[in-house]
Design brief:
The strands form two sheets. The protein has a five-stranded antiparallel β-sheet, with helices on one face. The protein has a two-stranded antiparallel ribbon with strand order 2-3. The protein contains one helix and seven strands, in the order βββββββα. The longest helix is centred in the last third of the chain and has 39 residues. It is about 30% helix and about 30% strand.
């Protein structure tokens, strides 16, 4: 029998699909495993959040479709309550944003590949 190496990524999307239905449908919720933090990405910098919610605004430069998209990354929860606001932003929110931007780039590539396959299929 071989030993199983227990490793986890730094970030993972939370999936709310269960016996209660899809409780996170249409939402992008990310878990930062190392700190036990939950963040949510909103597709607008003008999302209405309460004043006490820690947030980080960012843009994604969609080079494939030549569009700048604006987002808000908001902190739902951070297990490490001893961290300062700046530490949470630097060590959790900004890395979560980078994770999300890589996800968006991956999705853009999937869209392009799907369109390419549709076009090739239609031509044949």
């Amino acid at each position: 029998m071989e030993a199983i190496e227990l490793t986890l990524p730094e970030f993972a999307f939370l999936d709310g699909n269960c016996h209660l239905g899809d409780t996170l449908q249409g939402r992008d919720v990310i878990f930062h495993i190392r700190s036990g933090s939950v963040v949510e990405i909103f597709p607008d910098e003008n999302v209405l959040l309460k004043d006490n919610v820690l947030r980080f605004y960012f843009e994604y430069n969609n080079v494939k479709f030549n569009v700048k998209e604006r987002f808000t990354c908001a902190l739902h929860y951070c297990l490490r309550s001893q961290l300062s606001t700046n530490q949470i932003i630097e060590n959790i929110l900004i890395p979560a944003v980078e994770f999300y931007k890589k996800y968006l780039a991956w999705e853009d590539e999937n869209i392009i590949n799907d369109e390419r396959i549709k076009r090739i299929t239609k031509e044949n």
